[in-house]
Amino acid sequence: GDSVTQMEGPVTLSEEAFLTINCTYTATGYPSLFWYVQYPGEGLQLLLKATKADDKGSNKGFEATYRKETTSFHLEKGSVQVSDSAVYFCALSDRGTGANNLFFGTGTRLTVIP
Amino acid sequence: DAGVIQSPRHEVTEMGQEVTLRCKPISGHNSLFWYRQTMMRGLELLIYFNNNVPIDDSGMPEDRFSAKMPNASFSTLKIQPSEPRDSAVYFCASSLILREAFFGQGTRLTVV
Fold it and tell me: Does residue B106 come out as left (phi exceeding 0), alpha (psi in the -120 to 50 range) or beta?
């Protein structure tokens, strides 16, 4: 079945450090891939998405490239800020199954210290 | 658009009481999801609807939980009777079918 595996947290970085949060997936069809972010006390917000292989999603300095050969969608940012502290979720929607389920990873908590 | 609207934002109730959570999806969206989030179990999909029809309710913990979507602009999640282990943040999300989901602010439920 479909699933998403993302790196365990928590992750603590200093301001301006480079960020990578790994995400790999298993899908039976043709998935769309997403990164969501959850700030304290709020719901999840879509950060970026990619709908087909080799697509790169980007937003607010974050990037992720849909790699079909490695079934990965790693999140990266070149220089993190304190305001990036949040929980990040990788997610998958598999069009090939005909369903509309959204599969989420377990989330990775990022803390950025000044 | 105001986004996905959930009510109430916070609910405190006594064990054994009935709890009803409400959700108004984004106008025009035809898929609606109910999720539960806890520290121990993370984000769990409880049920989702396409065009007001329940498609997958395999995540509903037990018969105490029920969800309805009587029309395209309203859904409820009901817990009867509630138990302390139901304490969590419950999120509603909506989307166009096979597109990204938009989440509400959540309802923080505390059962004492």
Answer: left
Please write the tens of the pLDDT for every residue from A52-97.
999 999 999 999 999 999 999 999 999 999 999 999 999 998 765 5
Query: Nearest Cα to B69, choosing from B81, B60, B77?
Result: B77
Q: Which of residues 26-85 of A touch B (CB under 8 A)?
A: 32, 34, 36, 42-46, 49
Q: Is the pLDDT confidence value at B1 over 70?
A: no
**Are B104 and A43 a contacting pair at CB < 8 A?**
yes
Note whether B90 and B82 are within 8 A (CB). no
Question: HEC states along A26-90?
Answer: ECCCCEEEEEEEECCCCCEEEEEEECCCCCEEEECCEEEECECCCCECCEEECCCCHHHCEEEEE
Judged on CB neighbours under 10 Å (0-12, 13-18, 19+), B16 is exposed
- Within an 8 Å CB–CB cutoff, is residue A101 touching chain B? yes
Give which of B33, B38, B98, B102 to mutate to test A binding, by max A Cβ within 10 Å. Answer: B98
Structure token pair of residue B51: 């065009």
Going by pLDDT thresholds of 50, 70 and 90, the confidence category of residue A48 is very high
Please, what is the average pLDDT of chain B? 93
Q: Can you tell me whether residue A9 is helix, strand or coil?
A: coil
Closest B-chain CA to A90 = B43
